[in-house]
Amino acid sequence: MDRVSYVPKLLRGARRWIRVRLLIRRERLHRVQIGDSSLLYPSESVIGASVASGAGWEPTLVNALELLVPEHEPSLIVEVGSNIGVSLAQMIAVRPQARYVCFEPSQRFRDVLLANVAANGWNRVTVESVLVAAAAGDVRLYTNTSTASAAVRDYGGHEFLAAEAIPATTLDDYFSGANRLDFLKSDTDGFDGDVLIGAKGVLERFSPALYFEFAPFLLEQAGREPSEVLALLRRLGYSRFIVFAQDGTCLHVGDDPQELLRIAEDHGYVDLVTASRPEQLGALDAIALSSTEQGRGADVPFP
How far apart are the C-alpha atoms of 165 and 82, rounded to whole Å? Predict the structure, then answer.
């Protein structure tokens, strides 16, 4: 690269560095109430701001958990990509006696998550700093104002803050000595395929219900073919899916992977809910029906 073309790149980098430093300097921690829980969130966080505005976050999660995880069992619920704990607060509200393992590798969000866990007295929650991947090793994590991704640095209009190499493990390795796993939630902005690939063993052993983000364009940037992720799940017994839009609208219920992929590509980001245990399969239609009765997706067919 010649000096003439190199200088503008240096200037852009310097401007970005100054902008990020100013953003972090002016950022404050705010507080929001979610049910009985009080949560801190960084003022630049889209997640925190959405909850504070009354719009909520992941409106279908509570319904899915209530219908897929029995209330009076010593359940283990795993969340990969816990961020500041908004989804965790929603889950604890309906399954307070469950045990939770939360993975949040970004220090920016993990520090707030740990503060929220302590402040709310969530003594059945374990927070892990390790990144969950398809294989052990170091993975580069890109943190922005609202979330973090190991798939891509710039996406969704988020302001990139920093990159760091994070030690990674697999769910198979982490839970090698476990005797159950009932519900797995994953929201890693494109790395969810890797999370599931590294969980093949626990999915075969325990058949947990799954609730995960499915964003084909981000999966591809992480080097994963979206159709192959769905094919893996089908081989493991997960063949029927509910597809939810980010606002909780029920878009589809069915077992055709091509239709599921088409809908996901049309919407960019969707949440998928699936299960393989016989006693949980009937709950899938109940979850979707409940969403339609609440006015989200009233025209969704039930094949």
Answer: 19
Which listed CATH number (3.40.225.10, 3.40.1090.10, 3.30.9.10, 3.40.50.150) goes with 56-293? 3.40.50.150
pLDDT single digits (tens) 23-81: 566 778 889 898 899 999 988 888 887 888 776 778 899 999 999 999 989 999 999 99
pTM: 0.89
- DSSP E strands in the chain: the ranges are 29-34, 37-42, 76-80, 99-103, 125-128, 131-132, 137-144, 148-149, 160-169, 183-186, 209-214, 241-244, 250-254, 270-274
Instruction: Summarize pLDDT for 224-253 with one digit per residue, the tens.
Output: 999 999 999 999 999 999 999 988 999 999
243, β-bridge pairs: 252, 272
